[in-house]
Amino acid sequence: MALIKCTECGNMISDKSENCIYCGSPISISLKPSILCPECGTLMEETAEKCTKCGFPLSPKKQLECPECGEKVNEGTEECPECGFPFISSKEPIRCPECGKEVNEQSKNCPECGCPLETNESQESLLINCEACGNTISKWAEVCPHCGQKTVTKRKDEYSDNIIEFVIGLVTVIIFIFWFFKRCSI
């Protein structure tokens, strides 16, 4: 079941309803390919150049995908007509650190690969620039999603450094314990 906006009162109702449960207006859904006006929610033919109710221009716009439900929506739409997810524009597009797909800043997971998304501050610490093309990618990516170039994975280096630090610390503690007990037994 999908929610649609009643063309008369503007309330969200089931697309399976024959009449609006709020105002009683009949719901007529065309079998032709249709779109919703991003401004008022009126359902109309996909070929319409402007909304038949409010006159909103429906010039061909870039289609974006809702990060929550996958619905295709026009760029500039304030919320998804399918699930109501709010689209908040940001100056810089946010990209998934794993696959590079552009995602909404409110998304918790990437709609393409499912990778959990971090906040902007912690996301920046997980990003590096690809040495081949210069695009921003995840520091864990083995291949740049933009140019296909294999990357130097820092994860292995950092993991090795952590093991070395741990072993040095452990050896230091063991030496101190032996020194302490040897000193106490004299």
Task: Lay out the secondary structure.
Blueprint: E1 3-5, E2 12-14, E3 34-36, E4 43-45, E5 63-65, E6 72-74, E7 94-95, E8 102-103, H1 120-124, E9 127-129, E10 136-138, H2 154-185
Antiparallel strand pairs: 1-2, 3-4, 5-6, 7-8, 9-10
Give a quick precis of the structure.
InterPro entries: DZR. This is DZANK-type domain-containing protein. This protein is of the alpha+beta class and 186 residues long.
Q: Can you describe what's shown?
A:
Keywords: Membrane, Transmembrane, Transmembrane helix. It holds the Pfam family DZR. By secondary structure, the protein is α+β, with helices and mostly antiparallel strands. It has a domain at 1-61. It contains two helices and ten strands; from the N terminus they run ββββββββαββα. The chain has helices at residues 120-124, 154-185; strands spanning 3-5, 12-14, 34-36, 43-45, 63-65, 72-74, 94-95, 102-103, 127-129, 136-138. The strands form five sheets. A two-stranded antiparallel sheet has the order 1-2. A two-stranded antiparallel sheet has the order 3-4. It has a two-stranded antiparallel sheet with strand order 5-6. Strand 9 (127-129) and strand 10 (136-138) form a beta hairpin. The longest helix is centred in the last third of the chain and has 32 residues, at 154-185.
